[in-house]
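subagent[fold] <- orchestrator: predict structure for attached chain, return tokens only, no commentary.
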Amino acid sequence: MAIHHEINGSQLVENHGDYLLSFAMTKLNDIDLAKDLVQDTLVSALTKLDTFEHRSKLRTWLTSILNRKIIDHWRRAETRYTDPASSFFSQEGKKKGHWLENVGGEAPLESILEQIVKAETIEELHSCLDKLPEKWKGVISAKYLEELESDEICKNYQITPSNLWVIIHRAKLVLRDCLKGK
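subagent[fold] -> orchestrator:
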């Protein structure tokens, strides 16, 4: 199925540009850089649209491309501001260390990437939760986000235990399909 042939650049910008720019701004706090990376993302997406396998939503795929571009920017920025190897050593040839070792070195790049993916997943989950009927959304939130006991949930929503499990089961099916992009 060649869905990608129906998508053009103006549709990508119109349907996803604002979202991608907003996402980039939360990571970068530099509007010009964010615009540049979003533009690069959309150009990359257009050139690689035939590789999009539809295993996720188009927006998720675009956000993934943007994430990689942001991470590449961070990598380039980090290497730009690091000292040459000679600055690691004092005149006597003893290791001095590096100023980056003492500044925010708690999170390696892999954990930053994990945080970005986790934030994306949470955002997508909230988007899918919003598609549930209000009662189901409340029950799922109470059960899995607030971690309330089942009998307390039944009491709060005035439902039977069997009705609770039916709601949870059906909500999980809807969430699964939503997250898979169906």
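orchestrator: received. Logging for downstream: The two ends are 15 Å apart (CA to CA). The domain at 1-86+96-109 is CATH 1.10.1740 (Rna Polymerase Sigma Factor; Chain: A).
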